[in-house]
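REVIEWER CHECKLIST
Item 1: Sequence provided? yes
Item 2: Single chain? yes
Item 3: Sequence as submitted:
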Amino acid sequence: MRSPTLYKYELFFISFLALIMPSLEAGKTLFWFLYLCTYVIRRYRDGTLSLVPAKPATIAITLYLLATLTSTLVNWPIENGFKGFLDEYRFCTLFLCLYCAGYSEKEYRQIAVLLIIGVLGGLVYGLVEFLLNYSMDFQFHSAGILTQSSIYLGIAILLNTGLLLDNRNSSPRLNTFLKIALLIQLIALVYMGSRGSILAISLIFLLLAISTLRVKTVLTWTGGLAIVVLLFIAFIQFFPNNFFSKDVVDQYSVERTAESDHQRLSAWKIAIAKLAEGNDLVWGIGPRNYKVINDMDFVTQNESLMKMKKYSHGHNLFLTQVIEQGIVGLLAMLFFFLLVFICLFKDWRGAPQRKPGWAWYGGLGGLSIPVIAGMFNTPFYQEHAMLAMLVMGMMFAMAKQKSKVSS
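Item 4: Structure as written out by the authors:
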């Protein structure tokens, strides 16, 4: 089989993966595996496959994976076996493949558009499940629970925003679709009611508005947000007994908010108590092994901690990372995040009139939404990490192409 044929299959697999990521769990794993195998075979036949990391980003990802694997082996045997490592291997390989694949700008953009289409399909799938009582909350079928789905959606919103703002190669029909898609996603995000993701999107939009200093941009985003909020308020006022109205009121009720805050504070208290114990600080207790904390002496011998609800993560991605993978794992994660931030800053500073391309917005979403929302919610290894790594990989690839052109 010739490499051009492999290249076509490779693009097909990554395109289909982009479409089904939020909806089909088994299909997502299958097409990730097919894409990875096709990518490796194609690069090997072309003589461009290298297993030695040479770029800072590939070195950071390699260190990240080595820290995860070492933490697993040091704590072996652990309840989830290699699941934690395999989960991180899956999204790390997506980053590496998208970064090093060498696709054209048009092909990367097509993948980005397919990601948006996949999100819309995932929202429809999730809504049907919610209405049929297959799910307690409105969320994606295969992107985790409500908080994780909200982070996934937040990343997609910023990617969609970038495609709208950088519309140099877009048709009027595509721009109309992206505007409608963005409105639908914003409505869905508000309806999901995850405060961490809403806070993350609000902060990033505000930062972008200030950094661009464009009155039109500020007014557009403010107007869009106002429209979404007004639509919700009007709907609730006109149809107070409707199923959706009751669910929105429940999502933003004082009782539910207080309960969520209590859970987070309890989780942080247990996590800090674990760190204060002073054990497992170097390599942690193992990735995806957080539940072990519930049976440790510092919990069982503390009456107040024993009364708390048991948690599978620390409700903070940094606390979870340092407890599960130790200081080494935390440093590996921070090193990668730092490189992403540097790439974002350089690309923004070097863009004409501070107007970076669509991939920059995707990369910004891939870093900022999981980090800001993750301060209160879920760790980085959940399903939204696949989307985050995919869009950050495209951002690095586009930045590499720009540097080659400029040099």
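Item 5: Key structural point noted by reviewer: The chain has a mean pLDDT of 86.
Item 6: Recommendation: ____
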